[in-house]
Please model this.
Amino acid sequence: MKVNLPDEQLQDLVQNLPVDDSGKTGLNKLLQEVNKLTGGEFEAKATQKVLGNMGIELTSREYEELLKTLPVTDYGNVYKSILLDHMKLFPGGKCPISKVEDILEDMGYDLEYEEIEDLTNSLQTDGEKVNLTDMMETVELYTGNKISVNEIDNTLKRMGIELTPKELWELIRSLPITSDGKVYWNRLLSGLKSFRRGKAFENKLETILENMEYGLGKKEVEDMRNLLKVDEAGMVTLNSLFNVANLYSGIKINASDTQNFLENAGIHLTNMESQALLETMPLDDNKRVYKNRLMDGVKAYGGGEVDVDRIDDALEHLGFLLEDEEVEEICKHLPIEDERKLNMKLLMAEVYNFLGEEIDYADVENILKNVGLRLHLKDSPVLMKSLPIDAAGKLHKQKLLEGLKFLPKREQSEIKIEVDKLRSFMENMRFDLDEYEYEDLKSNLPIDDDGTVEMGVVLDKGALFTGEKIDIDNMEDFLENIGITLKEDKSIQLLSNLPTDAKRRVYKNRLMKELENLEGIKVSSDKVENFVKNTGIDLKEKEIKALKSHLPLDDKKKTNFNVLMDELKKITGEKIHAADVKSVVESMGIEITNKEHKKLLKTLPFSANKNVFRKDVVDSMKFFPGGKVNVSNIKNVLRNTGFKLEAKEMKDLVSHLPITEDKMVNLYELMDVAKSFSGEKIHIRDIKNMLENLGLKLTKQEEWMLLKSLPICKDGMVYKKRVLRGLRHFKEKKVPFSNLENLVKDMELELMEDDYVDLKSHLPVDENQMVYFNDEMDEAKIFTGERVDTRHLRRVLRRLGLVLPEEYKELQKILSVYSK
Model:
């Protein structure tokens, strides 16, 4: 049979077999018992089906990797128990959250209802599916010894941990206590780390660390002691203890490599500075130090310089969780000189000024109350889960307050602000309001009988007091530039309602909002584009033209202000809050993972109150390098992204999609094919003229093949771009280099003069001034999508997941750089 059983299973088998007086057992009985242990066997080629029936999903690549390591019998079979043991350690796979309990039961885990519920609630899901590796790591918390609830307090005290009765009760409430009043010891310790309340005796540090399985050496424990803040009673808060303990986790770095490591992160130390830093580090017996501890030491040391072009890299390695826009804001206040190096102390001072004071987890609720918020953290689980704790387990006041803006609107409406603390709240949220601006904001808020107002409403109204300001003395010129001319009475009315600062300036957003309240205002049609730009809405040239075509004009070629705003809203769609973006995308029929969701958020132009127009979300999805679509949802996705296809066109589109075994297609590939069904249409009788303009010559047979491949509608029309895609089948066809502009026009590309120069320089032209049609198409296609400011090239590359230490400077040089 050649069944390889572990010693433990072999012993169980021997004990369970009935034997006769001569010490023998029946073959059938032996086979039955072996089957119980092995789960039976099946053909190796049926492995994916067996896993699928259990609910475990593998990609084609993951399945291939699994088969490479999976033991197969001489008969080409696999034992189910061996397969499941392999899956426990396999680095891949997903399963529906609804199948977790069944899969764990098949794998031999015997969890009770409370434990299963606790486990599934702790797992991150992507479209109702969980990562198998995460599931297996988490289930280890529900193994080993159990402890009675009644013993928790005394056991923790013996370790050196003290909880108040209230804290003990809250900890117990957060644990999956089973019907016998017990909980797994591993789960208790895990819960204690995330609980972050209570205190510990400093003289019991070794005992605590040993029980928490940190595995630190003597030098590291002593170093940790020096970093802890001990009170008069010889105690430290558990929160600060675990924060410091986080520094002694992750990868280690050789002492001899630290200088090179830091330079790769954009941080430069002299040999003397590097040596001085290392003397403060707790090196182990192999002369290594934890990376987290090293970077914390760099922050405290304050020496050295940072490469200005790599500030974002340096801050990320130092453990600061900052968005690109936040790094930009910090850089605005830094004294950057020609040598492009910045003193580390200056950088740290500005970072801490931006982040605000470091706060203790236990003080979060008090801090929020001090800035005027009326809420209880325990009643806001969304806020608790979203607390922005950095790599070292630290929480900064400003990141906490900024996180409030990302809470769902429903959560924001449940958080109240006391009006007498409104000014404090606005200052803490970094709104820059003068006296009149503050009074104007306050007068427009719906304050209830208790003297409170919803936080969400305040943030929405507060967004009017952000962005650019306009000098009141220049207001007439500004209005004229956006196509508005006011009569004297309207001008007086407008000025009387606008809150100005001490310098007689008003926020542009507030001005544009006030214009909505004036009756009879009109906008000149020739200034519509300027008007749109000043509303903060980004429209393409085609969209501006479409907007103008829908505007009713009077005999002076002017349109009503409110009509223009209504037409704009039709184009932009409704405003979507950051917390709702994922659900909106999924309602469009697009599946995105949590990781993709975070990437998507970074590409969207959010307002100060974290809103974005639906149009911007849709536009981003058309070029987003992620997301998947089920074949059954293709029609809905295309409709939601603005594509209108007839039945024949839809059939043609689907036939050109690379559809996976699980009936899915990558969103980017779907959008790429769908773009062939947009833009201008052409009648089939005019295709010949189109080809002549391109300089492309086809034989009669080739023309017939082209027409046969095209999805021609009943009216004889077909998209020009679809014709161009069809021409790609004729790979050996060449066109005159001089006809490039006609191709660009048919592809509906908007190229600047520098673009043409760049495009022409990359085309492989032969001695007859001819170029392969497909080469020309490929090179021209590169000039599509969003334009990138080369000054922000590093940030764009980072969003794509690319990190180029030095090469990006060379990349900057060879890319087309525009003067505007």
In short: DSSP finds 47 helices and 32 strands in the chain. The radius of gyration is 33 Å.
